[in-house]
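WARN retry 2 of 3 for item q-0093 after timeout on previous attempt; input resubmitted unchanged.
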Amino acid sequence: MKLLVTGAAGKVGQVFLPKFLASGAFRGWSLVALCNNRMIEGGARVDVLRGSIADESVIDRAMDGVTHVLHMAAVKESPGMAIDVSIKGMFVMLERFRRLETARQFVLVGGDCSVGHMFQDYPAPITEEAPRKAYPGCYALTKILEEVMLEQYQFQYGVNGCVLRAPWIMDKDDLKYALSFGLDQFGGPSWGELIGDEDLQTFRKGNHVPLMRDVTGAPLRRNFVHVDDLVAAILAALDNPKAHQALFNISMNEPVCYGRLAHYLAVSRGCAVADIPTPFHSNWLDNSKARHLLGWAPEVDLEALVDRAWDYRRDAKDPRTVWYPG
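OK item q-0093 returned
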């Protein structure tokens, strides 16, 4: 078996590669890592190519003899690149893959932006049958289009596709900086859009964490997943007959409640709580299908998510680098 991985140098790719290579289930498999802006080192079972997924000649070389594809490469809110990378790139890959005699499975790591995460209202838990609703911006739109393109290639050509739809992926100290009121905040929402400058300066001076409230005034519930749990789901789906042409929500068993989150940080870390009203919606990404069919279950709950982020200590060789905003 031969696996092509895009996005191998990213947050998920860097965790996936060593776990894939160490897994007995994939002993004997080889891997091709297609990189562009960032590179990784090759090895005995890993070949590294450089180029854009939108370049047909690059994809022709990368797909040679491939049986499986794990597609994770993406761009965020970059309108100038969105069509070439996310749409043309997906099309070029699918066109080449469907013609491979060796083709077995195409796995796409998607995101809950395809269901609008906290920007769109869902009256019930969001299952894989829920309608897709993008939030404003080009990134969410492209993630929806990627899902739809793979779905249609399943209908048109019988491609064995699998979509793993993940919410905000947490690793290392990401959560700590996602909750920061400082200039080092990671991801959104931008606090300046929700609170006045005077309050923001007060929260920056103190050891504050946000208790965001949803549009109803209740503590906001937002979906997260730890990178280790997402990688475990990828490994569970690869070459799994139960993942045939399937879409799975890959998330924590419960969304993170900002009320519980703020309380736990106040008790365990001595943080002060900043109450912040928002126009956002609480949503629950239902992962029961993945737990039932893949035999997968997330191990990182709210408390573990906090403890891992706050206890993480960076090595001098591991500076905090934000390659994209969220």
